[in-house]
Design a protein that fits this description.
It contains 10 helices and 9 strands. By secondary structure, it is α/β, with parallel strands linked by helices. Strands 1, 2, 3, 4, 5, 6, 7, 8 and 9 form a 9-stranded mixed beta sheet that branches. The chain has helices at about 1-25, 40-50, 65-75, 85-90, 120-125, 150-160, 175-185, 215-220, 240-250, 255-260; strands at about 30-35, 55-60, 80, 95-105, 145, 170-175, 190-195, 205, 225-235. The model is unreliable at about 5-10 and about 10-25 (pLDDT under 50). Helix 2 links the parallel strand 1 (about 30-35) and strand 2 (about 55-60). It is elongated and about 60 Å long. Helix content is about 40%, strand content about 20%.
């Protein structure tokens, strides 16, 4: 019997130690918001956690408006936005510009169209041009893909490119830049728009009004379809030590260089 109690005690002790080790964790930072900013924040969070292995950074893709609300109500210490704050939001939130991003019009790599004017883009997304043949392309219906209303990307496209003109109800709405890229990369007749930093070999970015979307052209001012990437938090709030360390890393030369490598435009142009 004594041996049984001894074995039982040893087992319980092992379980307690195991639970303690498994449940132990360092500081936990929650950052939520823009699905455009999220991939870049996730990339920086991975690098940051390599340098701070006891800390955890949880990045949640919810959309710009949801991220702003999360920062306002304290659900997330830091929110992410890919649009400018409105007057009421700006009165309640601190905002940090971590980089700038250009919107890029994308088509399938096989699409023979090589460039569009702003008027043609507005006509395509507005629904008055419905076939690629009207633009010198194939006699195929144009499949328009856009972001969901309320996202920072949709707001930037509506303001910078559509200039408030309505978008055709035929447009297929998607919840992230990644899903738009995936759809366009698999459909020779599709057109959409994504963050310049997310353009890869699976899609073709089109010049608009003769200007190719690029970091160089954002910096020299010739490509004007540009939006801010922001971190926001409650005004007057002192960030937690971990949040401040992460923000400092993002704004450091190393962090800004990484964002530049990902196709964003930083203060230094890296």
């Amino acid at each position: 019997m004594k041996r049984w109690y001894w074995l039982l005690g040893l087992l319980l002790s092992s379980l307690l130690v195991g639970c303690g080790a498994g449940g132990a964790s360092g500081p936990h930072l929650v950052i939520s918001g823009s699905t455009s900013v999220s991939p870049f924040t996730e990339h920086l969070a991975e690098l940051y956690q390599q340098q701070h292995p006891t800390e955890q950074v949880d990045v949640q893709s919810l959309g710009s408006t949801a991220g702003i609300r999360a920062a306002l109500d304290g659900t997330s210490e830091i929110g992410m936005s890919s649009r400018d704050l409105d007057e009421e939001e700006a009165s309640q939130l601190e905002q940090l510009l971590i980089a700038r991003d250009a919107l890029a019009l994308i088509v399938h790599p096989s699409n023979p169209i090589q460039a569009l004017s702003l008027e043609q883009v507005q006509a395509i997304f507005g629904g008055s041009i419905n076939s690629w043949s009207e633009l010198g392309g194939l006699d195929e219906t144009i499949n328009v893909v856009v972001r969901e209303a309320g996202s920072g990307t949709f707001g930037a496209f509506d303001e910078l490119i559509m200039e408030g003109k309505p978008i055709t109800p035929r447009a297929l709405r998607q919840g992230s830049n990644g899903s738009i890229r995936q759809l366009v990369s698999g459909d020779p007749n599709a057109i959409g728009y994504i963050s310049l930093g997310l353009v890869d070999e699976t899609v073709k970015a089109l010049p608009v009004n003769g200007v190719q979307p690029s970091v160089e052209h954002v910096l020299d001012g010739t490509y004007s379809f540009v939006r801010p990437f922001l971190y926001v938090w409650q005004k007057g709030q002192q960030l937690s030590p971990q949040a401040q360390r992460f923000v400092d890393y993002v704004m450091s030369p190393e962090g800004q260089h990484e964002l530049g490598l990902q196709g964003l435009v930083t203060g230094s142009g890296d």
